[in-house]
Every structure is written in structure tokens, then in C-alpha cells.
Amino acid sequence: MKPSIPETGTVVRIEGLKAVVMLDGGHACKGCGAGKMGLCNPGGNARFLKAENRAAAKPGDTVKVGLDGRVRRKGYLFSFVIPLFALLAGAIAGNIFSERMAIRNLDVIAGFGAMVAASLISYTKLRALDKSSSLAVFEVLPTHSKQ
Length: 147
Description:
Layout (H helix, E strand, L loop, with lengths): L6 E9 L2 E6 L3 H5 L1 H5 L9 E7 L8 E5 L2 H33 L4 H27 L3 E6 L6
Parallel strand pairs: 3-5
Antiparallel strand pairs: 1-2, 1-4, 2-3, 4-5
């Protein structure tokens, strides 16, 4: 499961163009239902993930890891915007046709049907987006030395 907000972690090793980052189960895990139930992070143990090393991090660096803004915007579009517009368009079309065809409640049926169809299509697009996108290391955070 990919964190939805930037997380911090420590680079463990570099594998080609990717960095293996150890996350300690921070904010995204506390806000996620799967994390609360212990499905992806049982017992609060650290988890490892591979991320594109855009910030040229080295092993031992503390880094900020997250999804690219473009991927997040596409996710919001598929999750919320497209189903909402499909609901509204279906309801409007159903209202127009219900007056012409004298069928009661066609606006509700058409709106709900359009939303369900758009949601199913959006779900397949989201699954493809999840498989094709990856996390990225955006920033190497400064380390605080103890004196």
C-alpha cells in the first residue's frame, strides 16, 4: 500500500535507480484503515519500500518519500470528480427523458446508473495507475548532529 502523504524514512540501500527506504509507520499508517487494523504494518514494525531516487540520496540519509503530484491529481480525478460528474449528467439526462417519455424516477435511476458505470471504469483506471506509478524520494532531509 502506498502512502498518500509524504512520509519520512531512512535509505537502507541503493538498487540501480531506486532507493530502498525504511519507513517507521508514521502519519499515513495512523490515518489508514488497513494500518489501524494491522493488515499492512502489523505490530507497528518498520516497513521497506522501493522508491525512485530523484534526490540522489545515499544509504543512511533521511528522506521524504511520496507520490508525484500528477499521480495524486489523476487519482482524485478518477476517485471523485468523474463519478460525481457522471451522477449529475445522468440525473440531468434522466430528468429530460423522464418528462418526454413520462417515466417517473428516471432521473434517479439514470444518475445512479451513470455513477456506478463511471465508478467501475474509474476503478480499473485507478488499478492501472497504481501498478504503473511508484513512490519517489523527493528530498534529502538535513540530519541534526548531537553536540
